[in-house]
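Re: that chain you flagged

S.,

Sorry for the slow reply, it's been a week of failed gels. I finally had a moment to sit down with the sequence you sent. For the record, here it is as I used it:
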Amino acid sequence: MTLMHRYLLRQFLVAYLACFVSLFLIYLVLDVFTKMDEFAVDPHRRQTQAARTTAPDADPLLVETKTERAAARASLPTFFQNMVNYYWYRAPLFFDRVNAFIALLGATFSLGWLQRQNEFLPLFAAGVSLRRLLLPLWILLALIVALGAAGREWVIPACAPFLLREAEDPLGRRPLLVQGCFDEHDIHVEGRVAYPDRKMIQHARLTLPATPDNELIIIQCKEMFYRPANERDASGWWLMGCTPAELPRLHPALHVLAEGEYFLTTELSYDRLTRRPNWHAYQSTARLVQLLDEEENCPRRTDIIALVHRRFTTPFLELTLILLSLPLIVGHTDRHLLLKVGGVMAIFGGTTLLDLLCGSLARADYLDPVLAGWLPLMLLGPWALVQTDALPT
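Prediction finished late last night. Pasting the structure tokens below so you have them in one place:
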């Protein structure tokens, strides 16, 4: 690597880090002002709503009163601790969202500034081609794109439990809504609210498969507790306070414990019933493929299929963006630097809109999810190759 290559890479890294820090600080300031009240609550002193859930008709998801929130008001060190804990796990997600855009800005500022200072002219006069000069920069940009892909596959899935929590619930103890679904026995399980501390679901309802004479059996359950699998027993749920207390027909997966108490043997876990609708966005590609293989009727299956294919195409689409932008950056010496930045932002915005449009069409069943994942690359890839071939040598 020549001295000029090291100088170019150093200029790019400085511009890249400056853009990343600047954008992250802007995001941090804007987001903190919208979550001041959530960070100002001490999670250890916060009053739980257990007293209100003792009444049969009480709603455990009621918003806390002003008196309760005032009693749990956090001190200044706790406020900053809540803020750091919240954004510590969102920094990788922010990096994933803006990685390609920051790489484009870094390349624009570094190459545009060097071109503006006429530092390329001596090299061109000495016979150094532009492609040879930019080769180390292309390799570094490819490494940055690969780093973003590694973050999507390993770092963000590790942070997923914290990314799914609200700012006012840093410890993950707040009651959650239950997403009803079928288990492997075609038993539909739903509930009103779940408590993470006890792995318990309150006001649950189980709908057993229809009998040969089309009779449905519905079990109303006051509480159900999850038991994970161990060496001796399979996973399942303890059902307490069930109505009716005696069933006219017992399902093979149900075991009678006492009057009004049953045990449901099932692979349907607590996490499966309480996961949020957007939980799949923070999972690895291998986990999503496993989910599609195990759950044929999983919710939002079309979105997950499109997301899996976008995981494969995103690194190539980011490289395509770089190839589309480089001719704009170094191919017009007479343009102002701000015009080049605007052009790069327009290319990035147009590509993002195209990706969002394909995703929306796939969710509305107007476009096949597989095609939606590959269409942006299919449209922009040939254009990028033509633009790269047109670079001055």
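What I noticed first: The longest strand covers residues 218-227.

Talk soon,
D.
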